[in-house]
Model the fold of this input.
Amino acid sequence: MDKHRHEKKTLWVVLLTALTMVVEIIFGITTKSMALLADGIHMGSHVLAIGLSWLAYVIIRRWSAVQTGQGRSDKVLSLSGYTSGLMLLIFAVIIMVEAVGRLYHPAEIVYKEAILVATIGLVVNIASAFLLHHEHEHSDHNIRAAYLHVIADAFTSLSAIIGLVAAMKWDIPFIDTIAAIISSLVIVKWAIGLLKDAGLALMDMPGKQKKEHKH
Done:
């Protein structure tokens, strides 16, 4: 039953995230905010990753209709979580590369519009996090991956807002870019942690998993 509830939750988050992604990318380009554009691009990675999480639950539901196999289901969830973690890592690196490029080629930012859209993105991510959070997330790498994706995007939205406000107040545009770089570094750390945990599950090493779960 938990997996079926997670399937519905992840589908709602995918649809909500996809809509916000389009808005943030459009306004990131029009306002020339690197942090906002980075947030939109990063949210695009979430559409793919959380979509993958949703697909994993669909596959498991269809399998359960014809056979039982908890071990196989767990492998599917761990594989989906590992893939999502890899996508999170790749997109974080892409954001850093784009941000570094912006340091060498600065652009004028339309601050108020960028801050408004980043705030909308933050609200969407917080709502998504509440939808995906559950007390057993450490035992289900698939839902944990989806949860980490929206938490990571909430973090990039918040850093974008802080960077934009600071840049507007003190007229230092590169703060916006620095915020994007810092948030990407934090996301890289989260992604590596997810890859390690899901990788251990895929290699059937539950001892380490249980030890970490206690913390």
Q: What stands out?
A: The chain has a mean pLDDT of 75. The two ends are 26 Å apart (CA to CA). The chain is about 85% helix and 0% strand.
